[in-house]
TrEMBL record, chains A, B:
Protein name (record): Beta sliding clamp
Domain DNA polymerase III beta sliding clamp central: 136-253
GO biological process assignments: DNA strand elongation involved in DNA replication
Alphabetical keyword list: Cytoplasm, DNA replication, DNA-binding, DNA-directed DNA polymerase, Nucleotidyltransferase, Transferase
Database matches in SMART domains: POL3Bc (SM00480)
Function in brief: Confers DNA tethering and processivity to DNA polymerases and other proteins. Acts as a clamp, forming a ring around DNA (a reaction catalyzed by the clamp-loading complex) which diffuses in an ATP-independent manner freely and bidirectionally along dsDNA. Initially characterized for its ability to contact the catalytic subunit of DNA polymerase III (Pol III), a complex, multichain enzyme responsible for most of the replicative synthesis in bacteria; Pol III exhibits 3'-5' exonuclease proofreading activity.
Assembly: Forms a ring-shaped head-to-tail homodimer around DNA.
Similarity comment: Belongs to the beta sliding clamp family.
Record GO terms (molecular function): 3'-5' exonuclease activity; DNA binding; DNA-directed DNA polymerase activity
Entry annotated with the keyword Transmembrane helix: no
Main location: cytoplasm
Domain DNA polymerase III beta sliding clamp N-terminal: 1-127
Superkingdom classification of source: Bacteria
Length: 380, 380
């Protein structure tokens, strides 16, 4: 194998595939990056068995030459050293070649590295997905779906299925739901007529896979093709191939958790409410579970309070945009409320309560596609 | 105590005094920030016994009002909460007041915090320095002196005196020296005639104190007054008072370590050499002490190599600007060399060797005020 490549291009691909490489792997060769050179270009692969990422650098694209003098071949290089070496090379181009003993030579200007490589025959073959279950969405829309839900997945392994995001297709909506059983985040996306050819209904994607995918995807309108099989999901763009296993098991039916009526509705400015709760939580960090209290007051006022006897107390007064229904006192995790409000870009939110001990719902005003649900904490 | 203060101004002072506050203090009240209000303005104090910092916010300065409605008084607030509270307040001004039980009320917009404060009578009195040993240097020059030496102090406590920087005044030069016994950094500053009134000759300032001071000082031409007593040193600007204890004991005489002749002199481009050594060190991290080898070659070439059998090897070829004297093979810590080259702003450096087992000297070209010395490592 031998080729000369643009360093920036190579570095970007390395950063992408590194997202799948973990320091703690059971198969030693997976601590490496697989490099494959063909006449079409260079393909890098990283995998930790759960996630596999391939990044392709075409020989030439839009008239710009990325790779030159390609001699086909492949090798696995140690991911612990290869990225730092490439990043620090002195010139804009790098020559990479292997000998018959899988010794890798990396050359750029006066710098010459010889790394012990490994034969790619030992590298696990990535599964080839055979599926008709494909649909496309825009990269920036997929990033939104991920950001608006993935924070709510469970981080404990007591119920493994809850560490994933439930992706459903129903009634011409693509629907992402995540819950850790204390709060829930839901985002719907109206789908166009392409849904004819899709016949999966519900899968559960590991939260970690979506978080890594979100870090790689660009905030652009580029189309991402999503393909689903029984065990795996593939996100594919022009030069990126992101494969994740799916979680086994049935995701709980969450729709019945969502109250269909409310006793108190509060309309508030998203940012003001977020900042008031953030401040109130400053003194709530040492009490149980970061709990703050919210109370409706006269003249459409809200009061948010928190109190840790050894430290002190905080009282936040806030004018709402409006209030309907009964007065209310409720306690909840400031962290959950902050997480929920942070992903809402709309200026105003609507919060629907059904009493101090029932879950409440946060939605952006005039946007029914985002729904956040939080279970209160018993303190009164 | 009561006053209304500009939040940004208060925040800056808090950040300054926080540099002296440590989570691990033996005197509990030192985990707090002391606030004193007088008709002149507000003074904040932070201290961990070793370092004490006072920051003063005048009531009014250059026609700009920083503090209003001052009622004199003082209190100690918990440093764990106070900075975050002030930073997150909603308005540009903050009202701070205490009651007779040292309860502190912090008010800004709809936010109201009540913090348990402590009586300042328990806060240790900072020593008042009585000394004539004062001199002034510019803030940016003092920052340079610190940056060019403090990295070389010892980080182990086997010889406590080496954890400090030796500040000497001799032959009309202010001289900073630091060494961990494997390398040495030295910087001289020609002093003006003011030195008449100074009669200290040599003190040792804890490296940590200088690092913290460097973080607070601005890169400006503002004058810093430096006062020295037997046990303490005070750095003072208009609104800042930075007091540090000095280290006990005699600093070793370092001048005799510096070779007065050389067998090989290499002239190199600072940045090129730094980058080549940085790359060579990538594969040296797992061998003993991050060691690289340097070898002079024909035609004014240098070769820097490193080798870890399990990983691979690197060969860096570099054109020097010139070479005088014998050929040379020498091994040294890449980290020490990188530290030494990083603080040199000049384009070219002069490296003087006296053989493979003798310390060598790195200096910027045409600047005799900076000197770096590194002890080689025996490998050949």
């Amino acid at each position: 194998m031998r080729f000369i490549i643009q360093r920036d291009q190579l570095m970007e691909s390395i950063q992408h595939v590194m997202r799948a490489i973990s320091a703690r792997v059971t198969i030693p060769i997976l601590s490496g990056i697989k490099i494959e050179a063909t006449t079409a270009g260079i393909k890098l692969t990283g995998s930790d068995s759960d996630i596999s990422i391939e990044s392709f650098i075409p020989k030439e694209e839009d008239g710009i030459v990325h790779v030159e003098e390609i001699e086909a071949g492949s090798v696995v290089v140690q991911a612990k050293y290869f990225p730092d070496i490439i990043r620090k090379l002195p010139l804009k181009t790098v020559e990479i070649m292997t000998d018959e003993n899988d010794q890798v030579t990396i050359r750029s200007g006066g710098a010459e590295f010889h790394l012990n490589g490994q034969d790619t025959v030992e590298y696990p073959q990535l599964p080839v997905l055979h599926t008709e279950n494909s649909f496309e969405i825009k990269s920036d829309v997929l990033k939104d779906l991920i950001k608006q839900t993935v924070f709510a997945v469970s981080t404990v392994e007591t119920r493994p299925i809850l560490t994933g995001v439930n992706m459903k297709l129903e009634d011409d909506f693509l629907h992402f739901v995540a819950t850790d059983s204390h709060r829930l985040a839901s985002r719907k996306l109206p789908m166009e007529a392409t849904s004819d050819q899709i016949n999966f209904t519900s899968v559960v994607i590991p939260g970690k896979s979506l978080s890594e995918l979100n870090k790689i995807l660009e905030d652009s309108e580029e189309k991402i093709s999503i393909s689903v099989t029984e065990n795996q999901i593939l996100f594919q763009t022009n030069h990126l191939y992101f494969l994740s296993r799916l979680l086994d098991g049935n995701y709980p039916e969450t729709s019945r958790l969502i109250p269909d009526q409310s006793k108190t509705i509060v309309y508030a400015k998203t940012k003001e409410l977020l900042q008031a709760i953030d401040r109130a939580s400053l003194l709530a960090k040492e009490n149980r579970n970061n709990v703050v209290k919210l109370q409706t007051k006269e003249n459409n006022q809200l009061e948010i309070t928190s109190n840790t006897p050894e430290v002190g107390e905080v009282v936040e007064g806030l004018s709402t945009v409006g209030k309907e229904g009964e007065d209310l006192k409720i306690s909840f995790s400031a962290k959950y409320m902050i997480d929920a409000l942070r992903i809402i870009e709309e200026e105003q939110v609507k919060i629907e309560f059904t009493g101090a001990m029932r879950p409440f719902i946060i939605r952006p005003m005039d946007n029914n596609y985002i729904l956040q649900l939080i279970l209160p904490v018993r303190t009164y």
